[in-house]
Design brief:
Radius of gyration: 19 Å
Strand content: 25-35%
Order of helices and strands: EEHEHHEEEHEHH
Number of strands: 7
Number of helices: 6
Helix content: 25-40%
C-alpha cells in the first residue's frame, strides 16, 4: 500500500520567522492541593508546541516567582518577552471546582493589545492532560505557520480495501499536517 498525503502551505506560512514562546506559570484555583500543576501545565504546553515547530523558553523561577497574570503585569511581561526574545508569552489559570476543569490561557505578543484568550475544559482531574493538550493545539493553530492536508491518496493496495485504509487513519483532508500523525496512521494501517 502506498499512502500519500499532499499538503498545501497557507500564504502566511511562507514567512520562515521563528516563533518563540516564553511559557509562564499557571495560577491554580482549587480546594484540592494541585499546586504542582502550576509548573507541570507550562512544561506540557512547551513540549507540545515545540513538537509543532515552535521554539520555547521557560523563564527562570526567579523571574516568574509569584506570577499571576493581570493587566497590571504588562510591563513585567514585556520585559520577559524582551529578555527571552520571545514572540509570545503564554500564561493562564486552571480552575478545578465541582469535578470540572477550566483551563484558561492568555497568549500575549510583544504588542500586548493583540493578546488573546483560549480555553479548554474537561470533567475530572484525570482529564487534565487531554485538556492541556487541547489548549496546546489551540495555541499552535492560532500562532504557528502550518501546512494543511489537501489530499489523501491510497495506491497499490491489493489486500486491503481503500475504505478500510481510510477508516483506519485519523488524518483528514483539511486537517493540520503532522509527521507524528502520519506515523500513527501508518501504524494503524499495518496492525
Amino acid at each position: 500500500i502506498i499512502f500519500y498525503l499532499t499538503a498545501s502551505v497557507p500564504v502566511f506560512a511562507a514567512d520562515k520567522t521563528e516563533v518563540r514562546f516564553a511559557v509562564l506559570p499557571f495560577e491554580i484555583i482549587s480546594k484540592d492541593d494541585l499546586a504542582y500543576l502550576s509548573q507541570k501545565i507550562p512544561e506540557t504546553i512547551a513540549k507540545n508546541i515545540e513538537a509543532d515547530g515552535a521554539s520555547v523558553v521557560i523563564p527562570d523561577k526567579s523571574v516568574t516567582e509569584g506570577f499571576k497574570y493581570s493587566s497590571a503585569d504588562n510591563d513585567r511581561i514585556r520585559k520577559i518577552l524582551s529578555e527571552t526574545k520571545a514572540t509570545y508569552a503564554v500564561t493562564g489559570t486552571l480552575t478545578f471546582k465541582d469535578d470540572r476543569l477550566d483551563l484558561n490561557s492568555r497568549v500575549i505578543p510583544l504588542d500586548i493589545s493583540k493578546s488573546f484568550s483560549l480555553k479548554a475544559e474537561g470533567k475530572g482531574i484525570e482529564a487534565i492532560f487531554s485538556v492541556v493538550n487541547s489548549l496546546s493545539s489551540q495555541i499552535s493553530e492560532r500562532t504557528l505557520p502550518f501546512e494543511k492536508v489537501s489530499e489523501i491518496r491510497i495506491e497499490g493496495n491489493k489486500r486491503i480495501e481503500r475504505e478500510a485504509v481510510l477508516g483506519a487513519i485519523e488524518t483528514k483532508v483539511g486537517s493540520r499536517f503532522r509527521e507524528s500523525a502520519l506515523s500513527d496512521d501508518l501504524k494503524r494501517i499495518y496492525r
